[in-house]
Structures are given as C-alpha cells and as structure tokens.
Specification:
about 75% helix; about 170 residues; mainly alpha
C-alpha cells in the first residue's frame, strides 16, 4: 500500500512540476525569445489586448510566477488560477476561432484547454506531499481549491477581457 501511495505522490509531483516548467518556459520565451517582450506586446496588441505591452508583461510575469510556484508546490491553487486565467485569455483572444486541433491554421485550442484542465485537476487534488504547501501544513480543501483555480482563474480572465480586450471589428460584407 505504501508503494502505491508513494507512486501517486510521485505522479502528482511529475504532473505539477511539468505544468510549472511549461508555464515557466512560455513566460520566459515571451520576455526574451524571438521578438522579446516588445514583439510579444505587438502580438498581444494585434489580438486586441490594449495596451499590448502591458498585457505582454502581465501574461509573462503570471506564467513565470505561476510556473515557479507550481514547481515548488507553493500556494498551488493560486498558481493554478494563474494558469487558468492566462489560458482562458489565450483561448478567447486567439485559439477558439481556429477550431479544436493545435495543428489547425492559427492553432486551435486543444493544447491550451489541456493546460486548463491539468491546472484545475492539480489544484483540486492539491500539491501532494512533496511540496512547500504540505511542509507548511497549508490545509487546502479540494472544493475550495477547485473554486480558486477554476472560478477565480476564469473569472479573473473574463474581467480582464471585459476591461481591456478590444478586437478589431471586421468590415460588414
């Protein structure tokens, strides 16, 4: 039985840390890769996020912060809310219109939606025994974890979009 429990803790650690690494990599790439943060800002502006540079920094720092917190297992439900929030914005502003598959022109939403589901699952289950949260004895409860990640993350994303997303209107045919 102990081997089963240890295996479950290990796979939870693997899932949480991998999600953290993915988010860290995305955030760092937005800041120093390709067109750097200025290029990310121009891209965000083209998606309708005004002002683009502010949202490029906001998204990038959220990805780096949430990624770091996930790797450490620190305030895990809040980190997962950050992942959900950034990915909901990504789906709505860029991926949803391109269909499900990531290999569709413009990239569909399958990958981004998968990150949302993983974040909600990790938040709900909790960070596991091998986390700072566990060692600090933070008593996260599954229902509150779920609400923080899913409702808090999506709600924050929708509030951000309501305030700052201004996509160009297509000319009437």
């Amino acid at each position: 039985m102990k081997a089963q429990v240890d295996t479950l803790y290990f796979v939870l650690l693997l899932l949480r840390v991998w999600l953290g690494i993915v988010m860290l990599a995305h955030g760092i790439r937005h800041v120093i890769g390709g067109g750097k943060i200025a290029g990310t800002g121009r891209w965000f502006e083209s998606l309708g996020m005004k002002p683009g540079i502010v949202h490029a920094w906001l998204a990038s720092l959220t990805e780096v912060g949430a990624g770091t917190m996930l790797v450490l297992g620190l305030l895990t439900p809040l980190a997962c809310a950050g992942v959900v929030g950034v990915m909901v914005v990504a789906i709505i502003t860029n991926h949803l219109k391109n269909g499900f598959y990531i290999f569709n022109k413009g990239e569909g939403y399958e990958y981004v939606a998968t990150l949302i589901v993983i974040a909600v699952v990790v938040a709900t289950i909790g960070p596991g025994r091998w986390s700072i949260d566990h060692h600090l004895d933070l008593g996260w409860l599954p229902r509150s974890n779920f609400l923080i990640a899913a409702v808090g993350g999506a709600g924050g994303a929708l509030a951000l979009l309501a305030g700052f997303w201004r996509p160009e209107k297509k000319p009437a045919a």
